[in-house]
Amino acid sequence: MKNRIKYCIANLKMNLGTQSDIMKYFSNLNNCDISTNESVGIIISPPFTTLSQSIALSEVSKAHLEIAAQNVNDHDSGAFTGEVSVEMLKDYGIGYVIVGHSERRAYFNETNDQINKKNKNLIKNNMCPIFCVGETLEQRNNALIEKTLKNQIIKGLDKLGAKEIILAYEPVWAIGTGQTATSEIITEAHQMIRNILNDIGFDGQKISILYGGSVNRNNAKELIALADVDGFLIGGASLDANHFYDIYKFIEESV
Ligand code: PGA
Prior knowledge:
It contains 10 helices and 8 strands. The protein is of the alpha/beta class and 255 residues long. The structure holds 2-phosphoglycolic acid (PGA).
């Protein structure tokens, strides 16, 4: 297994999903002159409607950009109206998929069991899950952080054959709220996650663990300086290519 590298990942969510939006976004990224740096992986995760165009745009981009899907179904094929399978994404040339985002857990009732199947199918197809975990405010207030992370990680990664995976610690209360977790909270959680990974047979030191939750260009420099933070999964601040680029620069400077 490779040593861990840093990542700067844009989760565009249900935004910038028209052809003209995404064209403008990639053109703005190119104007920012995001350079290729082998030690920082840059991944853009647009809505499904612009995946194909995003792949084409990433191929002509000056930077080495990877494209991720925001979701995948846990079944291989069948009568699942509106859903998309791992095979379909692989055929598209997608190498990364966000799995277990808290918005999917909360609004679409995604279970640990489904998340486990998604992770497993992706790994089997040599694709890399960007696996999100994190506690709600209620769980934090009830001292259930470690229990929650353990439950999500152990169930989500149970019986996974290979170990090429990216973890994202995203406390639910910090997502889209402007309430970024403190350095202490992030350090404690990332260390917990590495220990849990070690306990279940992964090499926690070799898995990149990103932080996500109201990351912006004002707090990125301080957060990337934390030893256990291997980059960011960025929602709101990634919608503006210039802000995303500023955050990327902080990551690049930290390696
Ligand atoms: P945010 O979202 O940066 O807007 O908080 C992060 C995420 O949901 O991945």
